[in-house]
Amino acid sequence: MELPNAYGQFRNQIPFDEISFGYSGIELFPLETIGSEQTGYSVDPTGQSLCTNEPGSWKSAWVVIGRDSCVGDPIILDSASVDHMVLTAAYGEGQWNPYPISVSIVAFQATLQAVAQIACGRESPVAIEHNPLPDELRDATLSAISALNPGIDIDYWECFLENE
C-alpha cells in the first residue's frame, strides 16, 4: 500500500481524529494505524491481497483512511486520482461501488473544517436536540461544500448534516 505524501500533510493539518454531528460522524485513522486498517478491504487477515480486476472488487489504489462512525462505511482515498479524490462505499454489500464525497484531499480537509465549525455544540443527538442547526447555516455550509467539490453530488453531506 502506497500512501501519498498529500495524505500525511492532510492528516498533520487536521487537529481532530473524529468529527461528530448528531448521529453522524467520521473517524480518521492516525497515520501509524493506516496499514492495519486495510484488513478486510485490500488484504485479508493473513495479508493476502483482496484486490482483483473483477467488477466490484477492491482496487489497489484505494486506501481506507477512516470510517463513517454511524454506519461503519469506509472513507477511502483514491491514490490513483491526480488530486486524491475521497470516496465512500456501503460496507457489507458483497461488492464495492464507491462514490465520491470530495474531489480531492485538499477539498476534503476544507469540507471537514467547515463541518467542524458548525458541529460545535451539536456533537450528539441530545446536543443537537438542544441546539439544532438553523436551516440558513446548514444551507450555507452545504453551499460551501458544493463550491469546494464541483461536480460532486453532495447527498452524503446533506445526510450528514441532518438535524434529526
Descriptors:
164 residues; alpha+beta; 6-stranded antiparallel beta sheet
Gist?
It is built from five helices and six strands, in the order αββββββαααα.
Describe the structure.
With 164 residues, the protein is of the alpha+beta class. It has one domain. Helix content is 30%, strand content 17%. It contains five helices and six strands; from the N terminus they run αββββββαααα. It has helices at residues 5-13, 105-119, 125-130, 135-148, 155-160, and strands spanning 18-21, 24-28, 62-68, 74-78, 86-88, 99-102. It has a six-stranded antiparallel β-sheet with strand order 1-2-3-4-5-6. A hairpin with a 5-residue loop joins strand 3 (62-68) and strand 4 (74-78). The radius of gyration is 16 Å and the shape is globular. The mean pLDDT is 92.
